[in-house]
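User: I'm putting together a small comparison set for a docking exercise, and I want a reference complex before I start. The sequence is below, and the ligand is AOF. Could you produce the 3D structure with the ligand included, as structure tokens?
Assistant: Of course. I'll restate your input first, then give the structure tokens for the complex.
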Amino acid sequence: MARALALAWRGWGRVQPNPLVGAVVLRDGAIIAEGWHAEYGEAHAERAALAAAGERARGATLVVTLEPCAHQGKQPACTDAVVASGVRRVVAALTDPNPVARCGAERLRAAGIEVEIGLGAEAAAAQNAIFLHTLRNEVRPFVALKLATSLDGRIADARGASRWLSGPEAREWVQWLRAGYDAIGVGAGTARADNPSLTVRGPLPPRRPPLRVVFDRHAGLGVDSALALTAHELPTVVLVEPGVRGEALRAEGVEVIEGQGLAAQLAALRARGVASLLVEGGGRLAGALVEAGLVDRFYWLQCPCWLGDGGVPAFAGVPDASIAQAPRWRVVERRALGSDTLLVSDRS
Ligand code: AOF
Ligand code: ZN
């Protein structure tokens, strides 16, 4: 299952809004074939792995990160492919919650195949958090926060500079991360201070370039900012308070969306088709989102330097909590990226 999960990551940036899925075929405990969902609308992981195994699948075990689908969608039902392959046993991590595709396990059992569900379920759910959120919550996107901080929890130095706090490995990983999100967001202060372009510039080209979003209550984004200057080519949204017109930005091709408060603004993004949003700062927006309970996942890049009391804190306005009552997040990943450390945690 660990190998199937690793294969599933190969679809990151290419298969959304569909799930990341990986599969392996086992014979006598050894992997004889591998497959993954590589492109949106193309072959499902199970079919890819079974095609690679060919006749050798007969009597073998299929290990897959999601219950095989039992429906004809953009692709034919995987349950048909599994039955035809002669596989004797299927081990899946997660039950498929998709109402149109689910119940594959039942279908397989009816055909005499042994089915086990639940192996590696926690890791598989963390990997497909966006897909699972989208099916459960139709109100707002999956919201992830990504911040690079110093050891003393600062996102910028006393002059407001944040380039380059994290090292090259972490910065390349951020490009990879962006490719899998529908939208990349920043607060108005960060847009002004950093003049970011919020584009994906890594080796992985996303299936669709993420929407660029600025939480900009008063439509203060400069018409000469990197975002506004490229808004005709790359979709760009500013989220403003009701009644703010943003005429100058509209004239540059920026889409102005009104909403009263963060929750309403996120709902407006979801209504516009954004299923996942990666927020990259700054500290005030990060704090406000955490305070409002609107963050599902936090990607924390910890950089080994000290910026001191004058540095910009990573979070502003998070309410006090006692140690006993403090909400505990679930750690889903820890990893070294060059000299920086990535910690991924989810609101439990
Ligand atoms: C995938 N890739 O490897 C598996 C999926 O419209 P379709 O035919 O592509 O079906 C999408 C659904 O199929 C998806 O929501 C999930 O429930 C199921 N399994 N989907 O995109 C895969 N195994
Ligand atoms: Zn399928």
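The chain has a mean pLDDT of 97. The chain is about 25% helix and 25% strand.
User: Thanks, that's exactly what I needed.
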